[in-house]
């Protein structure tokens, strides 16, 4: 199966939270493809962010782009269902945060969303091979989860190649997303290692000209192929 078209997913963790609707509209107008929505519970990770009410508010505000909900919560299932009702498009969770990985994935898909698993930098991909028929996205963390603005952990490049091989062997259109420390100056190597979906928080929202930053990222990604 041919590699999927690259998608840029700005993380709203670094957006102007007091003007979130406007900032999300701006970044979409600047060329972003999906909105990465980081959900932290101060339990699975040592930080606290957004719940389903904010996702629903973005939909009510008029955001129609796909919303990519990254759950950093434990347990997973009830919140996943609440985000499905709130208008999420993708819902990904960390496998160690649920007792029944297969059941949690299936429940997200039954609720009409695309489902995915997220792997921390030092978490092996072991369980992935058993659920390749039930995932629409594999998200590799290239920082330890909990905060924006951290540096990319280089070992994520080898892990991307490992995940890419598993996905290609599955023959299914599974997205391979990378999250953490993605910048203009490393995105080419990240794309070459196999990623097709690129989360970037501080690298986009920390710049004045979102369109120029996203265009520069796309140009670097194109050089990788
Ligand atoms: O999930 C997380 C952090 O836990 C990420 O989505 C960050 O929000 C990415 O931020 P940058 O590293 O791109 O600034
Ligand atoms: Fe994230």
From TrEMBL:
Q: What is its EC number?
A: 5.1.3.1
Q: How is the cofactor bound?
A: Binds 1 divalent metal cation per subunit.
Q: Which GO terms describe its molecular function?
A: D-ribulose-phosphate 3-epimerase activity; metal ion binding
InterPro entries from the UniProt entry: Aldolase_TIM, Ribul_P_3_epim, Ribul_P_3_epim-like, RibuloseP-bd_barrel
Residue positions annotated to bind a divalent metal cation are 36, 38, 70, 179
The coenzyme or cofactor needed here is: Co(2+); Fe(2+); Zn(2+); Mn(2+)
Q: What is one cellular component GO term in this UniProt entry?
A: cytoplasm
Q: What does this protein do?
A: Catalyzes the reversible epimerization of D-ribulose 5-phosphate to D-xylulose 5-phosphate.
Protein name, UniProt field: Ribulose-phosphate 3-epimerase
Please state the gene responsible for encoding this protein.
rpe
């Amino acid at each position: 199966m041919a590699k999927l078209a690259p998608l840029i997913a700005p993380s709203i963790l670094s957006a102007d939270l007091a003007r979130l609707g406007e900032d999300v509209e701006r970044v979409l107008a600047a060329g972003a493809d999906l909105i990465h929505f980081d959900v932290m519970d101060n339990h699975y990770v040592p930080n606290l962010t957004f719940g389903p009410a904010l996702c629903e508010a973005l939909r009510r505000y008029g955001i129609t782009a796909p919303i990519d909900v990254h759950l950093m919560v434990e347990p997973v299932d009830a919140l996943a269902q609440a985000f499905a009702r709130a208008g999420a498009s993708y819902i990904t969770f960390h496998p160690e945060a649920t007792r029944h990985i297969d059941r949690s994935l299936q429940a997200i898909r039954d609720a009409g969303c695309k489902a995915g698993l997220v792997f921390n930098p030092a978490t092996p991909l072991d369980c992935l091979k058993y659920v390749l028929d039930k995932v629409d996205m594999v998200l590799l963390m290239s920082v330890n989860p909990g905060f924006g603005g951290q540096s990319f952990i280089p070992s994520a490049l080898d892990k991307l190649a490992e995940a890419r091989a598993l996905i290609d062997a599955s023959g299914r259109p599974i997205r391979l997303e990378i999250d953490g420390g993605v910048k203009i100056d490393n995105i080419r190597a990240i794309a070459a290692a196999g990623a097709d979906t690129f989360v970037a928080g501080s690298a986009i929202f920390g710049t004045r000209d979102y369109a120029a930053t996203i265009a520069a990222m796309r140009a670097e990604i194109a050089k990788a192929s």
